[in-house]
Known about the structure:
With about 80 residues, the chain is mainly alpha-helical. The protein has helices spanning about 5-45, 50-65. The chain contains two helices and no strands.
Amino acid sequence: MTSLEEVGNALRRVLEKIEQSIAAHHRAADLANEARVLITDAGTGSDQDDVADVCALFTRVVEGSPSRKARCPALRPPRT
Length: 80
């Protein structure tokens, strides 16, 4: 029969894995945001659709993280 100590240890391992997964997700979102910024900077003034498309994809990745919001201001059309 499984002891309460073994159950507690198993639950602690699960919590550690969850924390590691959350940290990896945040790191991925940070890297996606960094890539988005680099692409935005490199594509500033570009009228090529692929620059905006790639930026939008990285924005979607970043927005997948609830605590992070990002946009591509350099690729937005100017306000009139």
